[in-house]
Amino acid sequence: MKLLGTSLGKEAWILSVTALIIAAALVYFDDSAPSEYTSMAEDMKTLEDNFRLQNKSCFILGASGETGRLLLQELLERSIFSKITLIGRRQLTFEGKANDDLLQEVVDFEKLDDYADAFKGHDVGYCCLGTTRAKAGADGFVRVDHDYVLKSAELAKAGGCTHFHLESSRGADKNSNFLYLKVKGQVEAEIESLGFERFAIYRPGVLLVDRRESRPGEWLARKFFGAVSAVCSTSMSIPIQMVAKAMASNTLLQPEQKTEILENKDIISLGKVKGNK
Ligand SMILES: NC(=O)c1ccc[n+]([C@@H]2O[C@H](COP(=O)([O-])OP(=O)(O)OC[C@H]3O[C@@H](n4cnc5c(N)ncnc54)[C@H](OP(=O)(O)O)[C@@H]3O)[C@@H](O)[C@H]2O)c1
């Protein structure tokens, strides 16, 4: 018994030290810079009212996905656009009363040029499109997360969109050795060069969401970061609702720079701004 107790004690000690090291590493690698949004005391309600008066329209790419559907909900609840168009590869059905301000355009992403009209006449565009390498293979991932996204941005720009929002990823870097981060960084840079009047890049960490689709690797990461974020705030993960809220709130703001990069902590901070639902 004594022996067992000693060995369990050792294991517990090793586990505690490991957990401490991981926690310390997370704190060390956390973005320590204070977010510019934490002190933002503007009245969201007034901003929403003013924006609404401008009768703007928008489109959402990826509204069938986890972030996209929450963004759609957020925009419908706030009612800041006079028209919302969902652009996707399939028709979506919604429960309850049909929303007259909601339109759908079903497109073939392999022939997007043939669907240029779908991208015409929107003031604001939101892109929550994406797949995974596990699901689509390396080439398929590049096709969706780079080619489809860039082409959509090009058509949106040509169609008169002035403000483009891109859900990218934490660590996006066009010079990265990791395909995922490299592709995300490349598409960010290429869209920036299109010259939108405003280009907002969101770089969330691991999205904390009970995903409808099964993704075992991501599930593990979510469980880990979900547990860690319950203890301390980290730049590595984010409740997915925060991303949708931040994208909606940021639409109402007028930043000085044409291109803004919102890192994980900025998104959390903006997602929490008073006045948000
Ligand atoms: N998962 C994370 O933890 C994480 C972290 C940081 C950033 N991100 C990035 O955030 C973005 C949104 O992520 P999410 O998890 O909310 O997305 P999601 O739930 O996987 O939804 C992806 C959307 O893209 C569409 N899509 C996928 N493959 C397509 C294809 N071949 N052709 C046309 N449309 C296609 C889907 O349409 P269908 O419904 O028709 O398939 C869906 O609307 C992605 O770019 C992702 O890389 C994710």
UniProtKB/TrEMBL annotation:
<protein>
    <recommendedName>
        <fullName>Protein HTATIP2</fullName>
    </recommendedName>
</protein>
<dbReference type="Pfam" id="PF13460">
    <property type="entry name" value="NAD_binding_10"/>
</dbReference>
<dbReference type="GO" id="GO:0051170">
    <property type="term" value="P:import into nucleus"/>
</dbReference>
<feature type="transmembrane region" description="Helical">
    <location>
        <begin position="12"/>
        <end position="29"/>
    </location>
</feature>
<keyword id="KW-0472">Membrane</keyword>
<keyword id="KW-1133">Transmembrane helix</keyword>
<keyword id="KW-0521">NADP</keyword>
<keyword id="KW-1015">Disulfide bond</keyword>
<keyword id="KW-0812">Transmembrane</keyword>
<dbReference type="InterPro" id="IPR036291">
    <property type="entry name" value="NAD(P)-bd_dom_sf"/>
</dbReference>
<comment type="subunit">
    <text>Monomer. Forms homodimers during oxidative stress. Interacts (via N-terminus) with elongation factor EEF1A1 (via middle-region); the interaction is direct and competes with EEF1A1 binding to guanyl-nucleotide exchange factor EEF1B2, thereby inhibiting GDP for GTP exchange and reactivation of EEF1A1. Interacts with nuclear transport receptors XPO4, IPO5/RANBP5, IPO7, IPO9 and KPNB1 as well as GCN1L1/GCN1 and LRPPRC probably through their HEAT repeats. Binds NCOA5/CIA.</text>
</comment>
<dbReference type="GO" id="GO:0005737">
    <property type="term" value="C:cytoplasm"/>
</dbReference>
<dbReference type="InterPro" id="IPR016040">
    <property type="entry name" value="NAD(P)-bd_dom"/>
</dbReference>
<feature type="domain" description="NAD(P)-binding">
    <location>
        <begin position="62"/>
        <end position="210"/>
    </location>
</feature>
<dbReference type="GO" id="GO:0003824">
    <property type="term" value="F:catalytic activity"/>
</dbReference>
<keyword id="KW-0007">Acetylation</keyword>
